[in-house]
Here is the input.
Amino acid sequence: MIYVCIPCYNEAPTVGLLLWKIRQVFSGFPREYHLLLIDDGSTDATAEVLEPYTRVLPLTMLRHESRLGYAASVEALLRLAVQRTDRPKRDGAILMHADFAHSPSFIPDFLRRLESGADIVVAQSTVTGESSRARRLLRRFAPLLLRGRVRVPGVADVVSGFLAFRLVVLKNAIRGQEGPLLTSDGWTANAELIGKTARHARRVDTIPAVERHDLRQRPSRIEPWDTALSVWQGRWKLRLPARQTAEDRSSGHRAEPTAAEAEPEDETVKSP
Here is the structure.
């Protein structure tokens, strides 16, 4: 089973089309799937748009009565996927946005990587269609603001919100965390999610993707200065556990940091 997890806030113009496009992808790339969507206290017509889809798609819809934020929505969806699976080593979850920035056409690439043995797959995206130069630059360089805190070999775009996981990795990350898995929000929460789950993964892959901002049917919610400040401040609050070895994973013990993790090399991270 593949759980497609979609946090949603005031995305009435795009969320229905997104769900239908996901259905078309799975029709041509047949895998058992289920859509998990959370309406994070939307004040537009999101609930009304989604209601008919619950009758024709394999869709579970949750709702927060008031907005709790991106990180709370993502964690609720991923925890629900972990709770529902009875085969966490085989089943997977894909996290994507409801504003159509992430195209469902990349879902088969995620699934091929999971089926070939990857535990986590990160979409390293080229951003297109963003009219604001400040937001383009921020999206490009935000991963660099988190360098040294979140380091996963081969992953440059640590703020990517387009991800796939083998559910056993999420299960182990949740089980190994006291309290909420995600303690930050926004782009920093994406980096925290990648960093914490990668500690339990044997293999992390990346795929090239396109992040389109010209299909969004609302103004951007990214305020460049506020977001840059939030990412920079969040950098100092991130506390990631040490990476686990295969022996530690099987025994349930926590490993000490490797030398590379304790003393990050001063190397330039490629921008996505």
